[in-house]
Amino acid sequence: MGIFSRKNTDSQSSAPADPEMARLGRDYAIAKRHGDRQAMKRIASEIGSRDLSDTDVDSYRQGRDAYNNVPPAHSKPRRNQRR
Of 35, 41, 51, 57, which has the highest C-beta tally within 10 A? Predict the structure, then answer.
């Protein structure tokens, strides 16, 4: 195994138990990164209306963390800020 190996031995690399909850977690992370408050509220209310088990919550977190671990493609532009 080299110094730049991306192999992950954590349990996070396994597939989520509920792909629907993982998709909701990923959608929430995307909405949060892009500042889409309406989508964030819609997803949060959808999550709140369900009766979630521990595996559902873990799948949601796996989907959210999977997107959050990807760094942004570019930094936000600095406007009217002196360097």
Answer: 57
- CA quadruple 9, 12, 13, 16: dihedral sign: positive
The two three-digit tokens of residue 51, written as one number: 């009766």
pLDDT at 51: 87
| CB 43, CB 28: distance < 8 Å | yes
For the chain, give the number of residues: 83
